[in-house]
Write a structure and sequence with these properties.
Layout (H helix, E strand, L loop, with lengths): L9 E5 L4 E3 L7 E7 L2 E4 L8 E5 L4 E2 L1 H6 L6 E4 L3 E7 H10 L1 H22 L16 E5 L5 E3 L4 E5 L11 E2 L12 E8 L2 E6 L7 E3 L2 E2 L6 E3 L4 E4 L2 E7 L1
Parallel strand pairs: 11-12
Antiparallel strand pairs: 1-8, 2-7, 3-6, 3-8, 4-5, 4-7, 9-10, 9-19, 11-13, 13-14, 14-17, 15-16, 15-18, 18-19
Length: 240
């Protein structure tokens, strides 16, 4: 996949052995390899079974951007590597402006999926149980003082949907007397111990950080003590 010169780029350097992201983290960007090699491991630690090795021109991490799911692999640089990081908003603009890019991505993905499928057939399907830990960050209601724990891999924020019976990870139904919060309003993503707020598509009443409305599809990093608004509901972000 050629270097996309028509978009804003964020070039990153990862040293040999450095972890790019871990399995279970919520995504806020995908990567294109300009130089170097990257290996995707199946477990949270970069050891044992691995899914694939990627080199110059390859891309990875796009699946979580498309479906807002936790990372499926742990990515590590096998040698000093230069990457381009592309966030979800930029990725969607890239697809709209140049449909040929999406066709090339689908072709490359189909090829990679065949190769990965052949490799995974020979692997043992059993894995050690994942150890979970308590929340390290919360959204705290300004009105009630109630803490809403943020899951280690990130959380969906919104209101209970009586039609489907689905509760978001952080349910603001009791806080939102004016019905200003969308059912699926926003997500908090976690990557490398940093937290990012990302508004979901179709939100009517906005998402705010420190009083400033964030743009749809553009992640905004959260800092301890930040005042965060979802419609008319206001909370504080606390990182322990």
């Amino acid at each position: 996949m050629a270097e996309p010169s028509f978009i804003d780029q964020s070039k990153l350097r990862f040293r040999e052995g450095e972890i790019i992201f871990r399995k279970g983290e919520m995504a806020q960007q995908m990567y294109i390899i300009l130089q170097g090699k990257v290996r995707l491991y199946i477990s949270e630690e970069p050891k044992g079974d691995w899914a694939e090795e990627l080199a110059k021109g390859d891309f990875f991490g796009e699946g979580s951007l498309l479906e807002a799911l936790p990372r499926q692999h742990t990515a590590i640089a096998l040698e000093d590597s230069d990457l381009i990081a592309i966030n979800r908003g930029t990725f969607l603009r890239m697809i709209r402006q140049n449909p040929e890019v999406s066709i090339k991505m689908m072709q490359r993905l189909a090829q990679r999926h065949r190769e990965v499928g052949e490799r995974l057939e020979s692997l043992d399907a059993t894995r050690p149980a994942k150890v979970t830990t308590g929340p390290v960050a919360n959204l705290v209601s300004v009105l009630s003082g109630k803490p809403h724990p943020i899951l280690s891999h990130g959380s969906l924020i919104g209101r209970f949907d009586p039609t489907t019976g689905v509760h978001p990870d952080i349910d603001l139904t009791e806080e939102d007397h004016n019905l200003s919060v969308s059912r699926r309003h926003a997500r908090i993503l976690c990557e490398h111990g940093r937290y990012f707020l990302l508004e979901e598509p179709g939100v009517a009443n906005g998402t705010f950080v420190r009083g400033e409305r964030i743009l749809p599809g553009e992640p905004r990093e959260l800092k301890h003590g930040d005042r965060v608004g979802f419609g008319m509901v206001v909370l504080f972000f606390e990182k322990t």
